[in-house]
Amino acid sequence: MRSAVVEHVLPARLILSSQCSTGLTVVLRYRAADPLAVTMVFPAEYSLDERRAPQPEAEVVWVFGRELLASGLELPSGVGDVHVRPCRGPQTMVELRTPEGVALLRFEAGALRRFLAESYRAVPAGRELGLLDPDRALAELLG
Q1: What is the pLDDT of residues 78-88, one digit of tens each?
Q2: By C-alpha distance, which of 58, 31, 30 is closest to 44?
Q3: pTM of the model as a whole
Q4: 99-129: buried (b, 16+ CB within 10 Å) or exposed (e) per residue?
Q5: Which of 14, 46, 75, 90 is exposed most, by the fewest CB atoms within 10 A?
Q6: Which H helix or E strand runs over 72?
């Protein structure tokens, strides 16, 4: 089970202003080896870091709690750099905050729900802590 990986490629809208948005493809990934986290990956050209020139092979990666994504489908959730909230109709907004600015992404809520359902089949809610390897986690932190 520790090797289970769930990966969905989802369309999203990057909201640039109240009148303008652009489409992009986002990869959502869940790994049983890191059972509390969801990884969101999108192309480097969408980075807010102007100091970094986009590399074709580079990606922008955000990691946040699976529970944050799940709760944000129902009500505004998040503290700090990542916020998730329901939006009009069948949409969900994900807000990513950095010192360089804020990225606001709009997803179809159903697509996020399907991703989460598959992740919960891989690791049911409440079973995450049994899969954690504290020694590995500490080694990654001290890296």
Answers
A1: 999 999 999 98
A2: 58
A3: 0.81
A4: eeeebbbbbbbebbeebbeebbebbeeeebe
A5: 75
A6: helix 66-72
